[in-house]
Amino acid sequence: MPKVRTIQALRQELRIREGELSKLAAQRASLAKRLAMVERKIAAIGGEAPPVQRRRRKKAARRMKVARGRAVSNVQRERKGQTLAASIAQVLGRAKAPMRVKDITPAVKAAGYRSKSKDFYGFVATTLRDRTKFRRVGRGNYTLAR
C-alpha cells in the first residue's frame, strides 16, 4: 500500500526539489558561459567549432505525436486533404436534416477523410463544438451554423 504523506511533508519535498532546481539552473548557466569561452578560444586560434548536432526526428516519432493528440499543422493536413472541420461541413451541407455524431463519423470517412485514430468519434465530437461553424440543435444533433 502506498505511503500516505501529510501536506507538510509534501510541502517540504517541494521546497527541496525547488532548491535542487535552482542549483541545477545556476550550474547550467555556468557551464554555458564556460562553453562560450571555449568556443571563442577555438575561433581565435582559427579553428572551427563543431556544428551543434540536432536530433533528427524519425517518421515513427512524428506519427506518435499525432497519435497522442497533438495537432497536425494545416500545411500537413492540406497536403493530405481537407481538414476535419471542412469534411464535416461538407457532410452536413449535403444532409437535409440535422445529423447525430454517430452518423456523421462514418459519413466523414466515406467522404474520403483519412484517419488512423482509434477514437475518431471523439475527434468528430470535439470538432463539432466549434459554434462558429456548427450549431447544436438537440442532444447529439448538429447542423451547419448559418
Word description of this protein:
- This protein has about 150 residues and is mostly helical.
- It folds into 2 domains: about 1-50; about 75-145, Arc Repressor Mutant, subunit A.
- The protein contains 6 helices and 3 strands, in the order ααααβααββ.
- The chain has helices at about 5-45, 60-65, 75-80, 85-95, 100-110, 120-125, and strands spanning about 100, 135-140, 140-145.
- Strands 1-3-2 form a 3-stranded antiparallel beta sheet.
- Strand 2 and strand 3 (about 140-145) form a beta hairpin.
- The longest helix is centred in the first third of the chain and has 39 residues, at about 5-45.
- The protein is elongated.
- The relative contact order is 0.08.
Instruction: Estimate percent helicity.
Output: 55-70%
Shape assignment: elongated
Number of helices: 6
Number of strands: 3
Just name the CATH architecture of the largest domain: Orthogonal Bundle
Helix and strand element order: HHHHEHHEE
Low-confidence stretches: none
Q: Which fold name is given in CATH as the topology of the largest domain?
A: Arc Repressor Mutant, subunit A
Strand order of the largest sheet: 1-3-2
Give the N-to-C terminal Cα separation: 57 Å
Q: Characterize the main sheet.
A: 3 strands, antiparallel
Radius of gyration: 26 Å
Structural class: mainly alpha
The number of domains is 2
